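User: Structure please.
Assistant: Input sequence and predicted structure:
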Amino acid sequence: MIKYKETYGVDISKDVFDVHGSIVGHHQYKNDEPGFKKLLKALPDSSLVVMEATGYYHYRLAQFLYKNQVLVSVVNPLSIKRFIQMRLAKVKTDKSDAKAICEYALLNEVPIYSALTAIQSECLQLFRLQDAYLKHRTATKNKIHGEVVLGVPSKFVYRSLIRNRKQLDKEIAAIESKILSLVKEDQQEQLTLLTSIPGIGQKTALFLIVVTDGFSKFETSAQLCSYVGITPTIRESSSSVRGRARISKVSNRKLRNLLFLCSFNACKHNKACNAVYERLVNKGKSKKLALIAVANKLLKQCFAIAKSGRPYDETYVSVLPR
């Protein structure tokens, strides 16, 4: 049963975006404000606009439509890719991709987009810039080490690298300070609650609050764990296929990596996490698998504490839906 008067699939690129309506067919617009307004005028009431998550390019259009009371869905590009492959499509163009996105939305339940707040949007931009600077700093440190091994044949190069590293240190510290001030302005209480959990550092708590919009995007901890990608995917079929259970890679990789790093400290200082780790290791499971289970436990603790509004208590038993 179709819920919407018309469904539109959007394939968006740097300069233009192609739109395929389930009734009206194909149109193309410029990827700018006038193009957005033209699309908005062409949309009938009770329409759904579906697009792939394509980094920077989809964001402006999704935010524009959302602010103009248009139902929007942003789907995982891998889902669309698999859908197209399943149909054995031989043509790959922007026009055909827009049509495929439309057909995917007609056949599948798609999530409804929720716009980012101004603070959330700025924090995500800051996190992306921080990641870029961290990678640059690591590369600079490696280059400095290489120069030292060579005996510093060029003092000019060595001094330039040192200045670069110091500047990156300042920029990274400034970004961390800005993120902290933004989150404190909006979610100070939740930040205090999350950092009360042994194993959860300030950086992880900040990123958790930002990407979950203060945990308001999820109703259960299972949904959150699935989003982060620390729940196993089962690979079994009849008696011939018995693949090892693995965590899903179609998820928020940065948050998953942060939680995995937190799991090392949680094993030592978080009583519940330590119990999970010891139980699995004693059963003969690998240490990596046990650490993933600890990350899962940490995330559930974060969810329970954020929803209950109570600080961490190792004797507390959560009664929230899992």
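The longest helix spans residues 155-194.
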